[in-house]
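ARCHIVE CARD
Drawer: 12
Card no.: 0347
Subject: one protein chain, sequence and derived structure
Cross-reference: see card 0346
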Amino acid sequence: MKYKVSLFLLLIFMLNSCQDQNEKRLAENKKEAKKKEIIFNNIKKSWSFIDEPINEVSEKNINDWKEWREFLKELGGKPRKTIGAFQKKSSVIAKKAMALNNNIPSQFDQPQIKSRISILITKVKMMDLFIHLDRIPDEKVVFLIGEINKELVSLERQMDKIVEKSKIPKEEGESDFLRMLDTARAIPNSMPPIDQNSPKVE
């Protein structure tokens, strides 16, 4: 009889502990779901890119530079339903950003533009990396969205500067002077180096 009572008590204890664990697990799952919802809402609220050209030069590039047009178009769409939709969108934006290095119009194939494109690509790739983590650092994703917008403005302003500079007429002889400053075209020094050990006349 004692054996049956102790077995019965043990069974009740095990059932109670299982129930406690289930309640704990449910509470943790609720907490995790709430966290994910907050992250999703933060990203959804901040997901806004400058997808319209800010000046005439950038607008003209939409027609002439396919990669630029596709990149801006991709920035325009906003996912709505799930964090997975934002992750997919981020991957596509990263791919389109990488393509900006291709077919840069000859007028903009300059170090100032290339460096800004590189910075833009880096920030887009960072955003894509963070949004794909198991625990998404939403504050970093939101920060990078703002940084990407800043880089877009910087790139478009640099394009505008290059176009404005090209409109300024050169003065007579200026192109010859600039060629003389080009160190790649300079005449190499044909004199032999001075030997430090040779006797000096005083």
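Annotation on reverse: The longest helix spans residues 2-46. Helices lie at 2-46, 56-64, 66-76, 83-98, 111-131, 138-167, 174-181.
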